[in-house]
Structures are given as C-alpha cells and as structure tokens.
Amino acid sequence: MSRFLEYEVKPGDNVPQGLPRLRLPVLSPVWRGRALRLKYPDGEIHTLVGWSGEGRGGPCELRVFWTRHRPEGPAVALAIGGDAGLRNLAPRAGGEPARGLPFLALTESLIPSGVRQIIGPAPEPEARPMQLLL
Question: Is the pTM of this model over 0.85?
Fold first, then answer.
C-alpha cells in the first residue's frame, strides 16, 4: 500500500502560476538533498534546488521519489521542492535569472546513481483487476 504526500506550489516570483495541491502516491523511499545535478546527453549540466518562501524566496530541501498518475500507469521519478517549487540554476543566455519550475519528472537516464541507490528501480504498474461481463 502506498503512502501519500500532498504537494502545492504557491504562486510567487519563482513560479507565477503556482501549482494546485496534488496528492501524490509515494512508491519508493524518498531521496532528500540540497541540490540535484542533472547531466543531459548533450553534455549540458543543470543544477536543481528546492525553493521556498514568499517574494524572492530561498533554497530549501529537494526530494525525489517514484510516483504515478494512475495505479495502472507507468511510474515517474519526480523531483519536488518547497512551497515555491524548484529552481533550475543552469546558466541562462543574457544573464536571465534562474528558471522556476513547479516540479520536474526525470527520465531514467537522468537519475543520478546516488539518487537511484535510494529510490531504487521504477516500480511495476499495479495489476488491474480483470472485469468480467455477465
């Protein structure tokens, strides 16, 4: 049986549109850290941090875990931050500020090995009970 985590991003400077409260099933242990370094296939490196607080806000803990939208759907490794979402600290053209995100779904190839050691492999979809027509 899954546990659930409620997650909401308040509208603010980091994520102007916010994100309404979601109830996310937690299907694995949760990796927690100050930052997550993602290396893309083209060699580009992005650093994500959790973001929290009103106004400009500031860094906070970041969490990664396996979840899914529907019981029979595929599992997704989800990175979430604080009440202001995540902040992508990757260099931006023209000195633009770091980009805010409500969350980030990670492809398996982007999950760093240290994170994968904690969250494990993607869980299999739950078996869907067969419906009989009588």
Answer: yes
